[in-house]
Amino acid sequence: MAPPRLYLDWNATSPMHPAARDAIMRAIDVFGNPNSVHGEGRAARAAIESARRKIALLTGSDPANVIFTSGATEAANMVLTPEFSMGRTPLKLGRLYHSAVEHLAVREGGRFPKDRTTEIPVTDAGVVDLKALSDLLDAHDKTAGLPMVAIMFVNNETGIVQPVEEAGKIVRAHGGLFVVDAVQAAGRLPIEIGQIGADFMIISSHKIGGPKGAGALVTRGEALMPKALIRGGGQEKGHRSGTQNSLALIGFGAAAEVALQNLEERNAAIAALRDRLEAGMRAAAPDVIIHGAGGPRVANTIFFTLPCMKAETGQIAFDLEGVALSAGSACSSGRVGESHVLTAMGRDPKLGALRMSLGFSTTKEDVDRAIAAFAKIASRRKLAGEAA
Questions:
Q1: CA distance 104 to 159
Q2: CB of 110 within 8 A of CB of 59?
């Protein structure tokens, strides 16, 4: 009998945490519309508000400042807009500045026209260039409106932790709005919105062990808000209309609660597994390139290149060995293409790169299986004459 498949693609999506699954199953008969005033509706509303409080705890915010969405992409499209209001007063934003390594949901610019978006370069280590950010904001045309800056907390491909707190200080000094994509940081780092200095934060349920189809836009306060993306019945205080997905949000809340528990100890254990995996990879293929290894990374991510092996070839080879991993981001309709992250870091994107990412149920035995599969694939590459 073949061994069970090994899942090492946690940055793409996490298996559902047992706590989230149990919460959903317990709530399966909470069927009322949460916007109805009868008992069934009030029960659904209470469950959603409980989830909202758990998301607030995860993000260091107030429950009143958590807006539920269908996921991080919707949250990004909601907040990345030139149309804001401060209370009842319209507020115009002139330009969006985003780092060159952002997720596609941010790189697309949301509701900003393409000619009103600017990339912030990163260093060869994949870290946003703070001097370049400051220079761009110094040159910003304030007559066109305020600047908005979007920088991810943790890069989804390399795992590099960005200096968001320092970036937030620069943005505030220039009177801009600061948006932080914390999708890959949640459950791996403390993500208090006030400490970071963000005006808005984006998180996703299925990256932390909750179900797909749920996310949140977290705000620093209630006065400054973007124009609603989805309008209709006025749910979520009018910021996001549409009947809430109660079961998904209940699972999201349960996953957020677990993500806060034993955070430091859990990540130390995962970091030890990652280090063991990287050591095994280097022993099997000394020419392996681990991107971002010299910089600040979250504990669970390895983004690597096997020279002379295409990413697509490598991904298929690992899959045939029973190991699930990604060729960069998994949010591009299954396409395997050149990595914009490698390009931004000054690397040859044609090298191709693969990403292994670990999670709460990854074991030492899993890591040893991954090392064996890696060694087999690297050896096959050399036997075929593909290596330099």
A1: 16
A2: no
CA 324 to CA 318: how far, in whole Å? 7
Q: How many residues does this entry show for the chain?
A: 388
By CB neighbour count within 10 A (0-12 exposed, 13-18 middle, 19+ buried), where does 224 fall?
A: middle
pLDDT tens digits for the chain (388 residues)?
Answer: 678 999 999 999 999 999 999 999 999 999 999 999 999 999 999 999 999 999 999 999 999 999 999 999 999 999 999 999 998 899 999 999 999 999 999 999 999 999 999 999 999 999 999 999 999 999 999 999 999 999 999 999 999 999 999 999 999 999 999 999 999 999 999 999 999 999 999 999 999 999 999 999 999 998 899 999 999 999 999 999 999 999 999 999 999 999 999 999 999 999 999 999 999 999 999 999 999 998 899 999 999 999 988 899 999 999 999 999 998 654 444 555 678 998 888 887 677 899 999 999 999 999 999 999 999 999 988 655 443 3
Which residues are annotated as catalytic?
A: 331
Backbone angles phi, psi at 358, to 5 degrees: -105, 170
Residues 6+ apart with CB under 8 A from 266: 360
Q: What is the pTM of this model?
A: 0.94
Residue tagged 């940081």 (tokens): 185
Task: Identify the CA nearest to 295 among candidates 168, 136, 122, 132.
Answer: 122
Element (H, E) at 268: helix 263-284
Token readout for 322 is 């029973």
Residue 236 burial by CB count (10 A; 0-12/13-18/19+): exposed, middle or buried?
buried
Q: Which of 75, 74, 51 is nearest to 63 (CA)?
A: 51
DSSP 297: B
Question: What CA–CA distance (Å, rounded) separates 338 from 350?
Answer: 6
